[in-house]
Amino acid sequence: QVQFVESGGGSVQPGGSLRLSCAVSGTLFKFLEVGWFRQTAGNRGDLIASWSTDGRSNVVDSVKGRFTISGDSAKSTVALQMDSLKPEDTAVYYCSGKNIGASTWFDYRGQGTRVTVSS
Questions:
Q1: DSSP β-ladder status, 32-39 and 46-52
Q2: Residue 67: band (very low, low, confident or very high) from pLDDT cuts 50, 70, 90
């Protein structure tokens, strides 16, 4: 079964930066699209960025220009670089995946990493 392990969260002041990493194991990474989601109280998690090994990537409008997603196929990792952080970015961030071309994400995900943006 594919496993996702997130790291890199923490506490920063507004305007600061963090780099999250998602390590993927247990499946052929080259067939995956990996997504970063963020979860706040009351929601299961919203997709904010995705990257796939066929070169496609996407970042939602609400974080575009501040967040960048990238992948390393050799290391089976996908990173989320978060700059100009705002208090509203405070959330638990987790990663999950789906097969390239599939319409639904896997039910399972990593344990998440907490990001707190506060002065």
A1: antiparallel
A2: very high
- Which one, of 57, 36, 40, lies nearest residue 48 by Cα? 36
Residue 43 has a pLDDT of 81
Residues 96, 35: Cα–Cα separation, whole Å: 5
State the CB neighbour count (10 A cutoff) for residue 10. Answer: 12
pLDDT in tens, 27-55: 788 889 999 999 998 787 899 999 998 88
SS (H, E, C) 44-108: CCEEEEEEECCCCEEECCCCECCEEEEEECCCCEEEEEECCCCHHHCEEEEEEEEECCCCCCCCC
For the sheet with 3-7, list strands across it: 3-7, 18-25, 77-82, 67-72
